[in-house]
Design brief:
By secondary structure, the chain is of the alpha+beta class. Helix content is about 50%, strand content about 25%. Keywords: Coiled coil.
Length: about 200
């Protein structure tokens, strides 16, 4: 029973940490954008409807053009938010050999991406030895981790820390920005329709 409880707590904490490391938790709340654009949407609606020089088709074209500008404004701002994000991940690794003969293999340790949304590059990753020297970490082909393999020949100990900076993947970013945009402007239009219904 205790093991099951401990495992349940572990899964819960892992889920919380995973969620906190999602890029969507590290940028501005979308409801702030909804408030910003509902106000601008109201201005667009009033200026379009009150323009007596336009027929209905022209009004629709002008409305769509102005909304496209708002959507581009949001997309540019949101992409910048995600591109400006970075997370540093570090992990220690060591190898101790207590006798002089042979070689001890201590395996591989990796500084891994907090979630699949993140990636790293060789130029964003360093491995710092206890003595202060730096060695290159090996970055996995998909950028999900920076790793170092250690082995020790002769008696003694070697230790290091892998430090890697992760940024948001471009494919994840573009897909998420599109989802964020759809959320914001669907809500803006829904609130606008609700306001019109209340005024009728």
């Amino acid at each position: 029973m205790k093991k099951l409880l401990s495992y349940g707590i572990y899964l819960m904490l892992t889920g919380v940490l995973y969620s906190q490391n999602e890029p969507t938790k590290l940028v501005l709340d979308l409801n702030g954008y909804v408030q910003k654009y509902i106000d601008q949407h109201s201005i667009i609606m009033k200026s379009t409807i009150n323009d007596n020089t336009l027929n209905l088709q022209q009004q629709l074209l002008q409305y769509n053009d102005e909304m496209a500008k708002l959507e581009k404004d949001f997309t540019d701002a949101r992409e910048k938010e995600y591109r400006d994000l970075s997370k540093e991940v570090s992990i220690g690794h060591s190898c101790t050999k207590r006798y002089s003969g042979g070689t001890k293999k201590c395996g591989t340790e990796c500084a891994s991406a907090p979630t699949p949304a993140w990636f790293t590059k060789p130029e964003w990753s360093d491995t710092v030895m206890e003595e202060g020297n730096k060695v290159n970490a090996t970055v996995k082909p998909n950028g999900s981790a920076a790793c170092v393999y250690l082995q020790k020949s002769g008696e003694g100990r070697i230790a290091l820390r892998i430090v890697s900076t992760f940024r948001v993947r471009e494919d994840w970013l573009l897909k998420q920005v599109e989802a964020d945009k759809n959320y914001v402007f669907t809500k803006v239009k829904k609130l606008a329709r609700k306001a019109i219904d209340l005024n009728d």
